[in-house]
Prior knowledge:
alpha/beta; six-stranded parallel sheet; 10 strands; globular; 271 residues
Amino acid sequence: MxxxxxxxFDSGVGGLSILKSIREHLPNENLLYVADxxxxxYGRLPKxxxxxRCIHIANFFVExxxxxxxxxxxxxxxxxxxxxxxxxxxxxxxxxxxxxxxAFATRTGKxxxxxxxxxLKSDRYKKLLAEYxxxxxxxxxxxxxxxxxxxxxxxxxxxxxxxxxKYLQPMIDEHIDxxxxxxxxxxxxxxxxxxxxxxQVAGNQELQIIHTADAxxxxxxxxxxxxxxxxxxxxxxxxxxTSGDTDISCQVFSKLxxxxxxxxxxxxxxx
Length: 271
């Protein structure tokens, strides 16, 4: 089983931010990545459709012999993680917004959270706030349009800048000093966030932007080690799939991963 692949999925290309970290921490592991771009963003899907999509992708990973699965999507985690764990025998690694480290890191006591609507309304997110940030002021935004901007591969245009500024500036005006990125698409827009926030946060300190890619990779490493599933041989393959347009996906995947990537069609039918 050690040479079996790890399945990683997201509503689209955002989970590549997690995949990149996994490749850095676990360079020997064989990987399968599914971008469910035909259904992105998951944050707007009705829960019954999201349920079907996650089952469909999980079944695909099992059919491919995956030894573990990473839900590289905060929305899918919030809605589906516990159910998937109850139905599938392989280890399942999930996401959660980094409220705990943000609460420890803030100096002003004011934290910004960018996440999808499903995540912000989830019981898991509310529990994190109650446990770690009950004495903090938390400003939230679902950032409508961020996912689509990343899916298009446009990370540097005037349009992208203005979109990020629209949601970030009000939080900067509230004097946040820590920003949690609760969607795996959003780290690809972090350079713009840093550009916009430069010299604007409290005390002219750099805005601290927190996301969970490394934490997820380290947790995955621990789980694989505990189950004697680590691969110590050289990696043989990484396979990329999309339920969207493969030609567009090849361009966007290659841009985000900084290497030429071939993307295969993923059967999107979950009926």
